[in-house]
Amino acid sequence: MSRSLQRELSVGEVARRSGLAVSAIHFYEAKGLIRSWRNAGNQRRFSRDVLRRLAIIKVAQRTGISLAEIREAFETLPDSGTPGAADWQRLSVNWREVLDARIHSLTQLRDQLDHCIGCGCLSLADCPLRNPGDALGEEGCGARLLESADGCTTS
């Protein structure tokens, strides 16, 4: 068996080695996060570096990084070959900023919850947690988007 054939994995092998369902692998491929090709028998084949990419996807998702953010980060990686330590360092530095912002937002939310749990105000105009300073009142009646696009509260 040639060396190039030893490096090729079937979708079943990728699923077994990554711990993911075959459907998840197909989903990630459809989203442009991983790539495969068809062999002469029209069977899907993956290079071994897909296992590292899938591991990165799983870690990133556990930290709340969206698939769109993962795909954007993967676009900075070389098209072929296994992402190395320097590649991972670059991705993790960028994601660390996102995670730090989320941690700050969650800490702020936690601290506000501690204050608000017993207050009983239930007032959208006065509640510092849901509508600080009645910032949404100027936009009219009805529900308003209380979070920005990055998931952080507007306060």
Global structural class:
mainly alpha
Write down the CATH class of the largest domain: Mainly Alpha
Helix proportion range: 40-55%
Distance between the termini: 62 Å
Q: Over the alpha carbons, how many angstroms does the gyration radius reach?
A: 22 Å
DSSP strand count? 3
Order of helices and strands: HEHHEEHHH
Number of helices: 6
Number of domains: 2
Largest sheet features: 3 strands, antiparallel
Q: List low-confidence stretches.
A: 1-5, 148-155
Oligomer: single chain
Summarize the structure.
This protein has 155 residues and is mainly alpha-helical.
Please tell me about this protein's structure.
The protein is mainly α and 155 residues long. The chain has two domains: 1-78, Multidrug-efflux Transporter Regulator, Chain: A, Domain 2, CATH 1.10.1660; 84-137, no CATH class. It contains six helices and three strands. A three-stranded antiparallel sheet has the order 1-3-2. 11% of the residues are buried. Mean pLDDT is 78; it is low at 1-5 and 148-155.
Task: Offer a few descriptive terms.
single chain; 155 residues; mainly alpha; Multidrug-efflux Transporter Regulator, Chain: A, Domain 2; 2 domains; 3-stranded antiparallel sheet; 6 helices; 3 strands; 48% helix; 6% strand; disordered N terminus; disordered C terminus
